[in-house]
Amino acid sequence: MKAYFLQAIRGIKHNKSRTFLTTLGIMIGIGTVVLVLSAGEGFKSYINAQVEMFGSNTLSIETVVPPSTKDRNANNNTGGNSANNAVPITTLKNKDIQDIKTVSNVKNAYGAALGQEVVTYGNISKNIFIFGADASRFDIDKGVIASGRPYTEEENRSLAQVAILGHDIAVDLFGENDPLGKLIRVGNYNLEVIGVYEPRGSLGANDDQQIFIPITTLQKKFLGIDYLFYGIVELTDGNKADATALDVSDLIRRNHHINDPTKDDFSVKTQAQNLDTFNTILSAVTFLLIAIALISLVVGGVGVMNIMYVVVTERIGEIGLKKALGARNKDILFEFLIEAVLLTLLGGIIGILGAAFFAYIIAKIAQSFNFAWSFIVPIYSVVLAVSISMITGIIFGVFPARSASKLNPIEALNKE
Amino acid sequence: MLIQLKNIIKEYDNGGVVTRVLRNISLDVEEGEFISIMGPSGSGKSTLMHIIGFLDRPTSGKYFFDNENIETFTDDELARIRNERIGFVFQSFNLLARTTVLDNVILPLTYGKKKDHIMLATKALEAVGLGNRLNFLSNQISGGQKQRVAIARALVCDPKVIFADEPTGNLDSKSGATVMNILGRLNSEGRTIILVTHDRNTAEHAKRIITIKDGTIISDEKNHHQKKSEIIEDDLEL
Q: Which residues neighbour A302 within 8 Å (Cβ) at sequence distance 6 or greater?
């Protein structure tokens, strides 16, 4: 067995640049597999951190278009987040949130809505999102106010014209200056800056570019509405999330006078369900990328097969000699098969190292943008990559190796 | 009797055209003989050596090696015989390129069952006067030395027979003489040597000369004036 390896290593070492080029396809294929899995884990760690930011042990209440609505049949069963639909659902109210606070296992809750306005300070104007929520949000959300204070429930009820700035928008408007106590122009109103958030980083809607104001102020003064876009409910015991979600649904159904649960205009989701949705999407994307990587592996494998056929032709005299010296067909077969497997394994290992390097760079870049993104190379991805590269070597090495082992020793000797 | 050929016929089928290369060859070889098989190119002498050397099978006829009928042997068993009981020396040396002299001689041992590869290979190389060239690469030594490495490689598994196919064909006369001298010495130590050559002068080193023409043996006679090469001990320079 050791002799097979020595012969195979001799073969690989004899032509280093060709070995490298041959294994390039395998490197890219294996590298992609590991990178996709690693980046997937990193993304998961980030999403988990994001979910934690909303507060752990929470339920989310979204508004949905009732699936039975006549012209919405296409959306059957699934419904759709009203934020994605042209028709806003106006039934989720502040009262629902206040009532939910009385449900058992509910610790706290807040409702939220989003608007868009031009914000001006001095000669700087920006068109940004304005996030409205009641004061309970400060007890649930993990965002940290770096300077200043949150607004109170009294300020919320009295439509106070106060604002807390996201980190980036504070820098954009005020630069080095202290924003606290200053008045900023938001739409047609002057709002007093009472706090500034620490940077928190986010995907999609960037919290650092938003300002945060009392929900009633947003509803009455800016949007002219009396409903909420969504609500967040904090639980005492996260293990009872499913049961509490049913209780909360019952309560909202009662408030909205809905008898048939299939006609719900809202949807209560636990964190686990939210993560499930995310994980389903991530799995689909991962699967797709790995399928693409497998194509690269097949191309790489064919490259290895091609080179192995060339190697067999090149060493035809050597094969004849070895047979004359007593090598059995099986000995020749193993020598070439092991050479092919070592080739793909080498490519695989370089691919893994390359992928780890890129995954590290991605994590560092993400972290530099304040994303809570961990650098993870899952062990299972390495095991998978090593196995796949060896299997590729066997699959694409066996035909050239067989053709080598079947050579007639005399013809092979005469080729020299 | 070491080798016994009875009515060996070998035919090649080239797309329907059958060429008969060996016609009814019968031959007995005792252990310890030194035989030259002579003949012009195309006479069938190489084909005969391939058949005696288990690299090829006859179309018909019987071949007994050590009183065993090789017809019944599988390919793997023939490989085992090639490994353990015979050794080959070729005209073009057939050493592994960019590989040390020692590793070249170890090669047949890797296909056998013997242990102590390095010790056996070193001993074989010392027997051909190359004990001081163990770690040279095969392309760093002269042609004569290459052929001596090949002889050491043929010798390392301690075979009964050594087949030499035109062993001096690619060598100058001095190196050729050294190689023939070594083969003669191996024979005097009791090893059977079968030499294939087209050159009368080289053939004269053997005790018995068999001449082949057009696939049949036309003469088989004792060589009463066997040549002895002068021992040339200074052939160790690069």
A: A25, A396
